[in-house]
Amino acid sequence: LQGTGTDAPTDTIAVCDRAGTTKYILAPAEVLGRQVSKASASIDTQGGNAWYVSLTFNGEGTKAFGALTTRVTTLAEPLNQVAIVLDGLVVSAPRITEPIPSGNAQITGSFTQLEAQDLSNVLKYGALPLAFDRGEVQQVSPTLGADQLNAGLLAGGLGLGLVLLYSLLYYRGLGFVTVGSLTVAGSLVYLLFLLLGKWIGFTLTLAGIAGAIVAIGVTADSFIIYFERVRDELREGRTLRTAVETGWLRARHTILVADFVSIIAAVLLYFFAVGGVRGFAFTLGLTTLVDLIVVFVFTKPLVTIVARLHFFSSGHRLSGLSAKSTGTLPVTKEA
Fold first, then answer.
1. Which of 41, 33, 35 is nearest to 130 (CA)?
2. 3-state SS assignment for residue 14
3. CB 112 within 8 A of CB 125
4. Residue 134 belongs to a domain
5. Cis peptide, bond prior to residue 78, ω within 30 of zero
6. Which of 6, 200, 315, 325 is deepest in the core (most CB within 10 A)?
7. What is the pLDDT of residue 333?
8. How far apart are CA 328 and CA 85, in angstroms?
9. Of 313 and 145, which is predicted with more confidence?
10. Are residues 26 and 121 in the same domain?
C-alpha cells in the first residue's frame, strides 16, 4: 500500500523499515492508501488475546487487492510479502497466505496493542491526500537568544521607569503610593516566577516578558482610576478621608471589570493559541491577578493611611491633592 511519501506510486524504490534494520526494493504500488475505506485494531479474545488489524477496501481497492493477493500467493518468500509504506518508510510487510478477493483482510502477528493501533492509524490516515511542506526554519544561537531576552528585560525596565516617572510628576506625593504598589507587585511576580520555575519548570521567554510589560500598564490603570475617583470626590466638596472611601467604592467596580476582561482574554489565548503566544497569555493573566491582589490588599489600605497624614489632608502643593491639582481653586469674579 502506497502512503503519502514524497515518492510517486509509479516508482520502483529502495526503502527501509521504520527501525532502519531491513531494506526493501519495492515495485510500483498496486493498491493505494485512498482505496482503504476502513481500518481498525482489535483483540482476538478466542485466540490467546492476540491483537490484529482488520481493513476494508472500497470497490476499486477490492479489485486491485484481490488481483495482487492472487498473484503473490504463488511466489516464494520474500516475494509473497506486501509492503505498507508511509512517508517513504515500510511500516509493515505482511506475507500473503491466500487470495483475498472479498475486500476484507486481517493482518496478524505478534502485535502489541500500541503496534496494532499504530498500524491501523497508518492505514486510515495514510489514505488522506495530505502533504507537509517545510515553511520556515529559524536557528537562534544561545547568544542571540540571550540578547533578545536582555533586550526584553531592558524594555520592561524602561516601561516601568516611565510609569513611575509619570506617576511622580503628575500625582506628586500620591505617586509614591504607585511606586510602593508597583514594587510590591513586581516582588510578588518575581517570587511567583521563581516558584513556578521550581514547581512546573516555568521559563520566562521574550513573549512572557511582553505579557509582563502589558500588565504594567494594566496595573497603572488601576491606580489612575482610583486616584482620579478620589479627586472627583474632593471636587464635590468631601473631605479627604471621605473621598478615599467613597472614591474606592466607585473605582472598585471599574478596576474589577477591567482586570477580569484582561484575565478572560489571557485564558482564551492560553487555551486556543500555540507557541510563544501561550507564554504571553500566561504571564499576562498571572500579573493581572497579582494586580488585583495588590490593589485590594496593599494600595487601598495605604491610601487610607496616607489620607490621615497632615501633609495630604492639608492639601500641600506637593501632595498631589492640593486645590490646584484637584481643580477646586475658588473662582475670582470680576467686579
1. 33
2. strand
3. no
4. no
5. yes
6. 325
7. 44
8. 83
9. 313
10. yes
CATH classification of the domain holding 26: 3.30.1360.200
Length of the chain, please? 335
Q: Is the pLDDT of residue 257 over 70?
A: yes
Same domain, 95 and 178: no
Which candidate, 271, 236, 266, places its Cα nearest to that of 250?
236
Domain range for 78: 13-125
Sign of torsion, CA 230 236 241 247? Answer: negative
- Type of residue numbered 111: F
pLDDT of 300 strictly over 80: yes
Contact assessment for residue 52 and residue 108, using Cβ atoms and an 8 Å cutoff: yes
**Taking residues 260-289, what's their average pLDDT?**
87
Supply the pTM of this predicted model. Answer: 0.54
List CB contacts of 330: < 8 A, sequence separation 6 or more: none
Domain membership flag for residue 257 = yes
Vertex 216 angle, CA 280 and 315, to 5°: 165
- My answer on whether 108 and 235 are in the same domain is no
- How many independent structural domains does the chain possess? 2
Do residues 179 and 51 both lie within one domain? Answer: no
As a whole number of angstroms, the distance between CA 60 and CA 53 comes to: 21
Query: Do residues 36 and 29 make contact, with C-beta atoms less than 8 angstroms apart?
Result: no
**Quick one: the chain helix, strand, coil %, rounded to 5?**
55, 15, 30
- Grid cell for residue 226: 482610583
Spatial neighbors of 193 by CB under 8 A, at least 6 apart, are 202, 204
User: For position 81, what pLDDT does the model report?
Assistant: 86
Same domain, 42 and 151: no
Give the model's pLDDT for residue 332. Answer: 44
